Amino acid sequence: MSGEDAPTQQQPEQEQQKPDQAPPGSPEESGSSPGATAAKEEVEAHKTFPCRALVLTGYGGYDKVKLQVKTQKKPQLKAGEILVRVKACGLNFAELLGRQGLYDLLPSPPVIMGMEGSGVIEAVGDDIKDKKVGDRVIVLNRSGMWQEVVVVRTERAFIMPDQMSFEEGAALPINYLTAYMMLFEMANVRPGKSVLIHMAAGGVGIAATQLCQTVQDVTVFGTASAAKHETISQGGVTHPIDYRTKDYVEEIRKISPKGVDVVLDPLGGSDTQKGFSLLKPLGTLIVFGAANCVTGQKKNLLAMAKTWYNQLSLGTMKLMQANKAVCGFHLGYLSDEELISKAMVKLLELYSQGKIKPRIDSSFRFEEVTDAMRRMHERQNIGKVILLPEPKKEEEKPKPEPGENVGKTEAGAKENKEETTKEVKAEEA
């Protein structure tokens, strides 16, 4: 598909729902007629409101994700739906892939990205009994979370612990569900085992490290650049390895000649082959990404071809003879809602017990989405990168000194306002 900008796709119509207070002596207060009530509902249904959203307008570089303001109507909630005012969103590597057209589950542009967030419920469907307006919730969705208000199915929303911040709520679901499923549902990590975690300073890496600490005597090998070693060591990595200057296979063999029990591989290509070679007998390799495909802002066909060419290829006979297991995990393709819900409940329990805690690397306003994506793309982050829908507050401008050219100051302010307006496209649906 072309990388050119596509026209803005109309997203599901949404609006903050706030009951109007009728003035004293009004028909609403004293009991209005059915006709008046119907007329009022008709007016309410046609009210509109602005909604800020980050829209992928085409495949390519950072400039393809644009902040747009859409005028939307009041959402008509169906059975099982809730309306959430989003306070924080998570940025995942999948969004970097999606921007390059490498994430199959993301609809074609124009589309609002984002798979996780946290916020406050503003309206609920008539049939919903376990949640109410005002509840703070964590929300999962296939896409569409990078906007101020969103309508989601109630089973994809989870009540937040009182002590959890909105940033932590947005940082938890994708990374921790991925790590939890791989470690405990697939690899069945038990006391005394050893785990290799690639990209140990990333969101999934930190989540996996923390979850390993909930099992007694688990040894963690973690790859990361040298500047991040102190942080990941404090977080629970037993043996940090600088993958940029050392061969991590050799380093692991020096410490553990037999290798490791579990390898979590988000890289793909030749690293998958190395991971398989590092497994002990009865060990498990879990592939859950192909980060080696992403080397620049835009799609790199050479990197993709190299990763594909070096991918691990095995027959069942070789697996049987090696006494090793190879698994694949992709949360986006996991359709078992009950399994996901049970894992989320467990993770929230662990958070409440103080055994896990999302590490927030940085938070960026929607206007700063390019900086956020660049930080993750260049692997500068240690922990989760968060996006905040709330508009960035303008810095208070200094008052002119006596005798200063006030007209010049006002002209400069007008120029700055025009530049800011260019960044945010206000378009009516």
Structural features:
alpha/beta; Rossmann fold; disordered N terminus; disordered C terminus; 14 helices; six-stranded parallel sheet; 23% strand; seven-stranded mixed sheet; 429 residues
What secondary-structure arrangement, pairings included, does this model have?
Elements: H1 27-30, H2 34-45, E1 48-56, E2 65-73, E3 81-91, H3 93-99, E4 111-112, E5 116-124, E6 136-140, E7 149-153, E8 157-159, H4 166-171, H5 173-186, E9 194-197, H6 203-212, E10 219-223, H7 229-234, E11 239-241, H8 248-255, E12 260-265, H9 270-278, E13 279-287, H10 301-309, H11 316-322, E14 325-328, H12 337-352, E15 360-365, H13 369-377, E16 384-388, H14 406-423, E17 425-428
Parallel strand pairs: 2-17, 9-10, 9-12, 10-11, 12-13, 13-14, 15-16
Antiparallel strand pairs: 1-2, 1-4, 3-5, 3-7, 3-16, 5-6, 6-8
